[in-house]
Amino acid sequence: CPDTEGALPVLGRDVTVPLVTGGEVSYAALDYAASAPALQRVWDDVAAYAPYYGSVHRGAGYLSQLSTDLFENARRTVAGFLGCRDGDQVVFTRSTTDSLNLLAATLPAGCRVFVFETEHHASLLPWRDADVTFLDAPRTPAQAVETLERALAAREPYGPALVCVTGASNVTGELWPVRELAAAAHAHGARIVLDAAQLAPHHPVSVAGLDVDWVAFSGHKLYAPFGAGVLAGRADWLREAEPYLAGGGASRKVTRRADGGVDVEWHDSAARHEAGSPNVIGAYAIASACKALTEAGFDALVAREEYLIGKVRAGLAEVPQVRILSLFGADAPRVGVLSFVVEGWNSSHFAAALSAEYGIGVRDGLFCAHPLVRTLLGSDPQAQGECGAPEAAPGEKSLNAIRVSFGAGTPNEHVERFVKAVR
Ligand code: PMP
């Protein structure tokens, strides 16, 4: 697997950055979990479409008709990519955060929500105004299923419930037992939404195959950084809820009442939650990324990523001061996302050194998953820094870690440089 062989072409490969030691080096983008570079194919598709851009669902002109077709075809492409069932809806949103907030706005009356404390804030916080139970961090995938089953079985009253779970952690990269959690949820009369922000760029995700009720993901983590995201799944809650945003596009008919007020009939389709002029380029870019990943084949993408994960694991194992953060064990299956601390180092300083001395971009901090990182690091003195993470209150020592993440566009050299730099 030499150098870039097998890596998909992405933008930014030619970008060079200055080093404090003098000279320049090509930038090693190893922060895919925050935002992945655009696939060249996505960029080319967007550039080819740009001159034909027009308003969607509004205009009679040729370009408006063309754009409307492309937008609706993008919806179909995403539905195919996600293995949606007949009758499922694909709503274009701004991001995973937006998708989960939208779903939170559709919760039926009396619906209880169950969510592990290990979630990213995007899948933890939208439910905080609901009747929510936060579940303790499990230490094995089987424990996750048992914990959920116990909590669902004990709920009183035994009414409607929703489980929200991530497919792959943005901190540890570990894969969660989604299929088993979905089966547990359904066995207990609950529904489940999958936060696939970190899973979808690395593994195939099938709504029908995993038997989840909804999936949420972000275009910018799927090599399509144009400001769009997706919520896909069951139509009933979406159709019955008030529109997430009120405005044009979501409304089928608006009339003035005799008493001077206004009556509205909302659309039943995905448009109900897409008020305003939609992000056509974003949706088109996501569809292009879905096609590119499907054509490249997830078998090949996963095999290559496994190779890179193996290189990182083996390289870090040679450095005794490094401790990899993990809930399910350092060897647990994961995507190309891995967080660690280094004995004797403040993580922020370490990440800054990787950037300044090696041209490597990683992330440091608590990764918008404060409860999880606190659980993983809480008792670990290696993780304490004198400064760094902005989450620390004044006078408090900060907790932070370093995260390296990569994907389909990562050349081998970036990972090799990272391992050498840590050594
Ligand atoms: N869920 C997970 C697991 C994530 O990693 C992220 C982004 N780091 C999000 C949700 C939120 O994604 P976005 O910022 O695109 O809304």
From TrEMBL:
The keyword Transferase is assigned to this record: no
Keywords: Pyridoxal phosphate
Residues forming coiled coils: none
Family annotation (InterPro entries): Aminotrans_V_dom, PyrdxlP-dep_Trfase, PyrdxlP-dep_Trfase_major, PyrdxlP-dep_Trfase_small
Domain Aminotransferase class V: 30-418
Names of the cofactor(s): pyridoxal 5'-phosphate
SUPFAM superfamilies referenced in this protein's UniProt entry, alphabetically: PLP-dependent transferases
A Pfam family the protein falls into: Aminotran_5
Domain of life: Bacteria
Record has Secreted as a keyword: no
Name by which UniProt lists this protein: Cysteine desulfurase
Source organism: Streptomyces pactum
